[in-house]
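Follow-up to my post from last week.
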Amino acid sequence: MREGVIVRSTGSWYEVRMPDKSVIKCRIIGKFRLAGKKVTNPVAVGDKVMVEMESKGGTGLIKEIVDRRNYIIRQSPRKKHFLHILAANIDQAILIVTIREPMLKQGFIDRFILMTEPFDIPVSIFFNKGDIYTDEDIVTYQYLKEVYEQVGYNCYIISALEHKGYEQLNNLLTNKVTLFSGQSGVGKSSVINGLAPHLDLKTGDISEYMGKGQHTTTFAEMYDLGDNTHIIDTPGIKTLSYNHLEVQDVSHNFKEFFAVSPNCRFQDCTHRNEPKCAVKDGLEEGSLSELRYNNYVKILEEIEDQNYWERNS
Ligand code: GDP
Ligand code: ZN
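User reply:
Got it. Predicted complex:
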């Protein structure tokens, strides 16, 4: 058996990159589970797997998944009660957003960070389409940059169209495995094409994503930009729901709230109506962000509504 890395998965077949850089088509036999949870894909891009070659056809069998260093998981967009692993064993994530075309969806950044935070995966946020930002958009950007950099997520402006802002991006990527993510239409494929024109990823037309939501990327895929530099492109995200999470999962992963929570009177404080809450104090003093807090409360309410309906239906 040899160890390889999953670079693409289409559902029934997995493409595995072997140490000699050849890519072998593999199947998986048997059931793999994630700590008892139902997942739509037992093996994800980035997973290290043990492969045994089949006797003919040049295809392989995946016999074992090597323990994951980390992974990014979301509720499956198609099957509500299943989880979907976006990628495994990554060094960092780059979130591509834009302030206009399409307009930035309030709360999306915080929802995304909720996926990376459980494993402390570093996130950088790239605001694409900088070429069309108005003065007002720049003010919005400056505000968001301040909010997110204070919590530890660096923000940059980039323009795939004008090929500007690529120095920082290139520097960040060197010798790392980086996940690229973003809502459909933000220009993620265009940004990646700007990094590696030979990939020639399909880019969408505004009318396509504004309308029926046609996807250009359907499966996650890992590309090599150098010997030790890899990127994982993932399908554009429409929305992120968190029905699989508990309240604690959320409160523990808004890290600046969690950091002050030992000073709340109640150990299980959710930072809403409880008396003597350190998060509330922080908001009042201005050391914590209202924007982050409002998004936090919205996610909690969504989860509680969901739990309520599940218990009573
Ligand atoms: P994806 O769905 O995130 O992969 O987005 P695409 O790369 O397919 O781009 C969606 C649309 O945004 C296309 O019409 C692109 O031409 C446009 N676009 C991408 N990057 C830029 C940019 O930097 N500036 C402007 N003005 N448009 C861009
Ligand atoms: Zn509190």
